[in-house]
Write a structure and sequence with these properties.
The protein has 355 residues and is α/β, with parallel strands linked by helices. The protein contains twelve helices and 15 strands.
Length: 355
């Protein structure tokens, strides 16, 4: 039996999306690729409200996190952490031999823009790294506020991990002064894993041009060189996933509508949040609840492993707590192409199991 995925990635992939990847292969240096990449780039710009350069990388989102560390940090960066994945980004920068400071928050807390500004006022940093949606804790940080604050620091780059928010939540890249915003496609895009995307500002591209030791695979200018030449990837791209992304972007933009997609995610989040208030408690600060994944405090000391075993018999799976939060919390994702009715069905099954 297939277990429907209510986990924060990979998410459920609809049959029509899977079928879109079934086509006769063409070469990554052929005109078909140029046409495909051009279409995807324009659609991603529309989704992200940006005119910035679009990077399409055959990698995980972690790959483009490393790209930011390599392409954006000139002298010293500030990493803001509040969970496992924001902490991972700081580890990546350290592994790239970058000089960084960490503004660390307890897991479950959100990060106000004013706290970041206090650090930027020192003038020590040329880049700041922020995780928009912390998948491990169900926290969404106030990206719009942070971007507005960044207007006061025009020489500092803002890099954003939007892995579990992009395509489920509004991100106005240009209006919010974001220099790099990145994601992978196996979460709110509802595609199979293996592809990552980013919108990169002219300011970030200029910074990249000034830096050495960026490697090759994740050099923003390697992507730009091949894009300017023929709208093609610098290395062999995962064309079946790019075709699926093109198909999915058509559905998002033309069929569902971008704003309607965001509203659906808000509706699903509201259903799970109301259920959580009634039955458990939030792990995250309620002022920073994510619209794409809810991290629930296991106040009733149920066996989350046991719950998942029973859910599997009914055709569903949720996520246990991440890392040290295992069994102390569990996570329900409400992102991608999942519907409010499917969320209601899942919660009904959980209620029946734990009654």
């Amino acid at each position: 039996m297939h277990k429907k995925l209510f986990i924060p990635g990979p998410t459920e992939v609809r049959e029509d999306v899977r079928e879109a990847m079934n086509f006769p292969m063409f070469g990554h240096r052929m005109p078909e690729t140029s046409k495909l990449m051009g279409e995807v780039g324009e659609k991603l710009q529309k989704l992200l409200y940006t005119n910035n350069f679009i990077v399409i990388s055959t990698s995980s989102g972690t790959g483009l996190m490393e790209a930011c560390s390599r392409n954006c940090i000139k002298d010293k960066a500030l990493h803001v952490t509040c969970g496992s994945f924001s902490e991972r980004w700081a580890k990546i920068s350290k592994a790239c031999n970058k000089d960084i400071d960490i503004l660390e928050y307890e897991w479950g807390r959100g990060i106000p823009a004013s706290d970041i500004e206090e650090k930027l006022k020192t003038g020590k940093y040329d880049t700041v790294f922020v995780t928009h949606n912390e998948t491990s804790t169900g926290v969404m940080n106030p990206l719009k506020d942070t971007g507005e604050m960044m207007k006061n620091y025009p020489d500092v780059l803002l890099c954003v991990d939007a892995v579990s928010s992009m395509a489920g939540v509004e991100i106005r890249t240009d209006d919010w002064n974001i220099d790099v915003v990145l994601a992978s496609v196996q979460k709110a895009f509802a595609l199979p894993p293996g592809l990552a995307i980013a919108a990169v500002s002219a300011k970030a591209m200029k910074r990249s041009a000034e830096l050495d030791d960026k490697g090759y695979y994740f050099d923003f200018h390697a992507f730009k060189k091949y894009w300017d030449k023929a709208k093609q990837p610098p290395t062999t791209g995962c064309l079946n996933l790019i075709v699926a992304l093109n198909y999915q972007l058509d559905k998002i933009i033309n069929e569902e509508g971008i704003e309607n997609r965001f509203k659906r995610h808000e509706e699903m989040a509201g259903i799970v949040q109301d259920w959580t208030r009634k039955n458990f408690d939030f792990f995250a600060d309620e002022n920073y609840l994510s619209p794409t994944v809810t991290c629930i405090k296991n106040t009733r000391a149920i066996s989350v492993t046991g719950l998942n075993e029973e859910l599997a018999k009914r055709g569903a799976v949720i996520s246990n707590g991440y890392g040290s939060l295992k069994e102390k919390t569990f996570r329900i994702a409400h992102m991608g192409d999942i519907t409010p009715d499917e969320i209601k069905w899942l919660l009904g099954e959980i209620d029946d199991i734990i009654a």
